[in-house]
Design goal:
Chain lengths: ~325, ~500
């Protein structure tokens, strides 16, 4: 186990280095001079010159990368130009919001997705199975922003049950927090629930037709035990991988949802930063997200280990 | 319980009940269309930032509904005979939020800070101010290198905002994180992209005009969601309502709305000399082709289609209702036959050009309507949708033929035209350079006499209307919506939300 861990961890370092070059390089491909974008409507030449100097924009690319990398290695991701606060501070402020949103979305997706997947596998080709498939198709093909606005119009404007947008910290008021998060979490989790449902269904179908399940049934075990204890456990392996990758996807998918519901999280941070050409924020946030993604992958590998004994040999 | 005890309890209850309305804090929640940038008047760059400053930082002077300069922190002012010094009397007894005195020294410090701080966005606005003298504790004199009539209008904006010298010295370039000014509300906290909270400043010089205890600004970018929040009661007031939502607001009995024509404009900036591209295209090369393009356009229809009627057609850098509008140049009517004739004269019956358009929905609609209308006269317009920052960069390099570009507007007309059309100015994307026109603009700066300035601006419009480096299309309306309980909302063309007098 420890050798496996060390090997996986060692692989992350070069990957991150490569990712950092990619982030930095891709950002340079963004058209538009950040100094001009940041200089405001008047675009005073002296301000543009000042900004160029301050952010080393007139120096060669490798030199600028060097400055950035040096900062990153010292835990300094730079300052946001637009609001003049350290990027690390912004990340610390926004991350919990997006994590809460992603976890709630994941909880919703897992509950709906796995339940629907099991039901449609067990009752294959029944009306229940068709209903679950229709739901999955709907979930996959509904754009987030559209669903979001429809929910706002229904639950906030028409019925007045939930706040239309915004965010309240759970430490301030847990009830208000959940009220403001339920709609965005559903919107975000909805599409992923559909993916999970389809994967759970196919994995379950495969496992349910395998020999050991037949043996279990032949032993006269209760069908519930066969499905939930014997079949589901095995079928969940691919679903766990998917779940781990999905959490990363939910974190990045939060971009649109946060925009619609005005949730001050990671997604909103990066979208606004891209449009304002707030380079250090974009770089810092993307690098951080990449690190999270890689870590989740690692965690998924570890989870295989724990769930599936065959991999431990 | 004895009778006395009962009587005491009853009295206590009465007292408590009488105190309740006061104990309940009055909060005003305002929905903004964007998240403001840094809250330091010297470094600030955005329109939305100014909306927050209106609650936070008072200015030397303000503008009223009719764009007249009115006192705020300065009670009176006087230009010298040669228009090269401006003497201002400072309002006595004003303090900053941290208790520091706002006097002539503080004003001097602030003007110097605007002029010298690294990265200051005010340098250009105050470029002609050479020094500031403290005449007495409540009198300052601004000395100019040459006359500059628009200075007062600049002082009615961020250049005239005063911050506490003590706090500014202590915080340096981090001042924007905890701004200390002298406005009706003081800074409490800011969560980036979520909210800015201000609370009533007890020692505000005009505290009788303030009726809220707290103001919370919430940036909500999506206009539909912003309106949904107002309708569901989470917000009390929203700015920049989408024109397409106005019908909905007006039909809702729980909401009220307000509108006023902006100070800025929307127009087509044409590359007439910014780069070599200009001479390669008939539109940039030949003023007759530009005239034909203008004649092909029906501005009323553009306003209806692109802005749902929530704008006024225009053909100058100020709107037709503005006092500086030159009436001898009215909006030309659409005339396709004449446009075709002009194109024939220019020898290009079917000119083609690329119209660069930012990706905002109203700019896109403008481009599409222009494309369709120009086609009737024989133009072949290709639309090139370009993300805003990128488009600015291309404009700056002169890498465009025509560009749908808006300007947010300034109180003095100089702020709508000088940097945009005077030779070699930073945002003269058209690359227009006309010595006579430049002279008119320069002369208009030298006098504060309205009649004389009007004459110079009339001359300037004569040139602009002939050369057409910018074809002005319309002036948007600032649109606000608020709940029924809000009263005292002042509509001023600068689009700010003034909290003085606002009740709810």
């Amino acid at each position: 186990m420890s050798r496996f861990l060390v090997r996986r961890l060692a692989a992350i370092v070069p990957t991150l280095f490569f990712v950092s070059i990619l982030i930095f390089g891709l950002q340079q491909l963004l058209p538009g001079d950040p100094a001009i974008a940041m200089a405001g409507e008047e675009r005073d030449p002296s301000v543009i010159a000042y900004l160029r100097g301050k952010f080393h924009l007139d120096e060669p690319l490798p030199v600028r990368y060097g400055y950035w990398l040096k900062g990153v290695l010292h835990g300094d991701l730079g300052d946001s130009v637009r609001i003049q606060r350290p990027v690390t501070e912004l990340i610390v402020e926004k991350l919990p919001v997006t994590i809460e949103l992603a976890l709630l979305a994941m909880a919703i997706a897992l509950t709906i997705g796995i339940t629907a997947g099991i039901v449609s596998a067990v009752f294959k080709n029944s009306p229940l199975d068709y209903a679950a498939n229709v739901f999955a198709l709907w979930g996959l093909s509904t754009p987030n922003f559209w669903l979001g606005i429809l929910l706002i119009l229904l639950f906030a404007v028409k019925l007045g049950w939930l706040p239309a947008s915004g965010y309240v910290s759970p430490f301030e008021d847990l009830k208000q927090n959940l009220a403001s998060m339920i709609m965005p979490a559903f919107v975000l989790g909805n599409a992923f629930a559909a993916v999970l449902m389809r994967h759970t269904r196919s994995a379950m179908l495969q496992v349910l037709s395998s020999d050991y399940v037949r043996t279990a049934r032949a032993k006269g075990l209760d069908e519930r035990v066969v499905v939930l204890r014997h079949a589901l456990r095995n079928a969940l392996t691919p679903v766990i991988t998917l779940g781990a990758l999905g959490l990363g996807e939910l974190l990045s998918g939060a971009v649109l949802t946060e925009q619609v519901f005005s949730i001050p999280g990671f997604g909103k941070l990066i979208v606004d930063a891209v449009f304002n050409r707030d380079y250090s924020v974009v770089q810092g946030v993307v690098l951080f997200t990449a690190t999270v993604y890689l870590s989740l992958n690692l965690l998924a590998d570890i989870a295989y280990f724990l769930v599936n004994p065959r991999m431990r040999t | 319980m004895t009778l006395t005890a009962r009587a005491i309890r009853f009295c206590l209850a009465l007292v408590l009940a009488a105190m309740l309305p006061n104990a309940y804090a009055q909060v005003l929640r305002i929905g903004l269309a964007e998240d403001p940038d840094v809250l330091d008047p010297t470094l600030a760059r955005t329109f939305v930032g100014r909306v927050v400053f209106a609650g936070l930082c008072d200015k030397l002077v303000d503008i009223d509904e009719h764009l007249k300069i009115v006192p705020q922190l300065a009670t009176s002012w006087q230009w010298s005979a040669d228009n090269k010094t401006l003497t201002m009397k400072i309002r006595p007894g004003v303090t900053f939020h941290d208790g520091e005195k706002l006097d002539a020294e503080a004003v001097k410090y602030n003007i110097e800070r605007h002029k010298t701080m690294a990265g200051s966005n005010r340098k250009g606005e105050l470029a002609l101010v050479t020094s500031v003298d403290v005449v007495d504790p409540l009198t300052v004199r601004l000395n100019l290198s040459k006359p500059f009539a628009p200075l007062l209008a600049q002082l009615a904006d961020r250049a005239g905002m005063m911050v506490s010298p003590k706090a500014a010295k202590a915080e340096g370039d981090k001042f924007g994180a905890h701004p200390v000014c002298s406005g009706p509300f003081k800074f409490v906290e800011r969560v980036a992209q979520d909210r800015i909270v201000l609370e009533r400043f007890a020692n505000y010089w005009d505290k009788g005009a303030i009726h809220f205890d707290k103001v919370i600004y919430l940036p909500i970018v999506d206009s539909t969601v912003r309106l949904a929040n107002l309708k569901s009661g989470q917000l009390d007031l929203i700015e920049r309502v989408a024109p397409s939502d106005m019908a909905q607001v007006k039909s809702d009995s729980k909401l009220k709305s307000a509108a006023i024509v902006e100070l800025g404009y929307q127009g087509l900036t044409i590359n007439v000399g910014k780069s070599g591209e200009a001479q390669k295209n008939p539109l940039g090369k030949d003023p007759r082709v530009r005239e034909a393009l203008e004649l092909a356009l029906d501005r009323d229809a553009i306003v209806q289609v692109a802005m749902d009627g929530e704008a006024v057609p225009g053909n100058q850098w100020v709107s037709p209702d503005n006092t500086w509008y030159v009436k001898s140049h009215p909006i030309p009517k659409r005339n396709v036959a004449r446009a075709k004739q002009l194109l024939a004269q220019a020898g290009v019956p079917n000119p083609s050009f690329t119209l660069m358009t930012p990706t905002t929905s109203d700019a896109q609609r403008v481009a599409q309507v222009v494309q369709a209308m120009a086609k009737d006269a024989g133009f072949d317009v290709k639309i090139q949708s370009t993300e805003f920052s990128t488009s600015l960069n291309m404009a700056d390099k002169g890498d465009f033929e025509a560009y749908v570009l808006a300007w947010s507007g300034r109180a003095d007309p100089d702020g709508n035209v000088f940097s945009h059309l005077a030779c070699k100015q930073p945002i003269n994307y058209a690359g227009y350079c006309n010595a006579d026109f430049d002279k008119d603009l320069a002369d208009s700066r030298t006098t504060s006499d309205a009649a004389q300035r009007e004459k110079f601006f009339t001359d300037a419009v004569d040139h602009e209307a002939k050369d057409r480096p910018i074809i002005y299309l319309y002036h948007r309306k600032w649109l606000w919506a608020f709940t029924n309980k809000i009263t005292g909302f002042r509509v001023v063309p600068d689009g700010m939300i003034r909290l003085q007098g606002l009740k709810g």
